[in-house]
Amino acid sequence: MGRLENKTALITGAAMGMGRATAELFAAEGAAVAVTDLDETRGRETVAAIRAAGGTAEFWSLDVARESSVKEVVDAAAQEFGGLDILVNCAGIIGVDKPTHELTEAEWDALFAVDVKGVFFCTKHAIPHMIARGGGSIVNYSSIYGMIGNDEFTAYHVAKGAVSMQTKQDAATYGKYNIRVNSVHPSTVLTPLVEGIAADFPGGLPAYEEHMTGNQSLRRLGRPLDVAYGVLYLASDEADWVTGVNLPIDGGYTAR
Question: How far apart are the C-alpha atoms of 169 and 187, rounded to whole Å?
Answer without folding.
Answer: 23
